[in-house]
Design goal:
homodimer, 159 residues, 4-stranded antiparallel β-sheet, 6 helices, 20% strand
Chain lengths: 159, 159
């Protein structure tokens, strides 16, 4: 891809995109939660074409229409989000700290497929710090939710 | 300026900026109205730094805090807006038609400092078409306002 295309997408991300980490309850997971990462771009549906254009350039993720008149282009998963963020990173200005923090957290998580409970909890704390940067409202599952689950499952024994 | 900086700003404009033409009532103008053009970027005040960054690169216009928690970076006037749009034009994707239309209208207006009433009215019609692209709400002064004024001043005589 041309460097001006990457710089354009970095500008679009700074103006209108977001990087999100979320805690998803998953009863089939040992610790009861999955950490998810999403890189998302939003436009009203009449401007959906620009989201398709981003998709054609990045060749990952999917564009969908929401039921509130907006369209959303989502890239989900550690590997796809890391690849895209690494390409955009040199050109990002406003969200530079967020991109760097996201890349570090993805690195940590993917390097350790079987985290100890305390390690997992540490990641959840970082997810929460990240959400604070995003001013995310309606966070349903927090560090505290995970800690309560881990405790109830007997994972958090005194050292 | 580096081409990746221009491409970044073009992406930011597509994600979060707007190009606006407005009709301003001016009692000291022959036709009662002035046509104004503004290139604007918006962010919440906590992200004001990115607007300052844009200003440092484009070296024109001004950043101000609004009283609704947002900051706004405005570039006003035909010559400044034209200069910036001409630099960004090669990299703009979503707002490409708007940029081209704005550049043509600015060209027409600046080439004719003493328009005939019908010519001025034609520009006002184009301002209105442009506003439709922007989905601008709360348009106070329209083509019809200008036509009414021109008619009341006796400018619009039957051919």
């Amino acid at each position: 891809m041309r460097d001006t295309t990457l710089a354009y997408i970095a500008g679009f991300l700074d103006g209108d995109g977001s990087i999100m980490f979320q805690l998803k309850p998953r009863s089939d997971y040992a610790y009861g939660f999955q950490i998810k990462v999403t890189l998302a771009f939003y436009q009203k549906q009449s401007n959906r074409s620009i989201l398709e254009w981003l998709y054609e350039n990045l060749k990952v993720g999917a564009v969908r229409d929401r039921n509130d008149g907006m369209s959303e282009y989502d890239i989900e998963g550690f590997a796809p989000v890391r690849n895209v963020l690494e390409m955009l990173e040199p050109y990002v200005v406003l969200k530079r700290d967020q991109v760097d923090m996201a890349l570090r957290l993805i690195e940590e998580i993917t390097n350790q497929p079987e985290p100890a409970p305390n390690e997992f909890l540490e990641w959840c704390a970082k997810v929460e710090i990240f959400q604070t940067l995003n001013y995310t409202k309606n966070r349903r599952h927090t560090y505290e939710s995970v800690r309560a689950i881990l405790k109830s499952k007997g994972y958090l024994v005194p050292p």
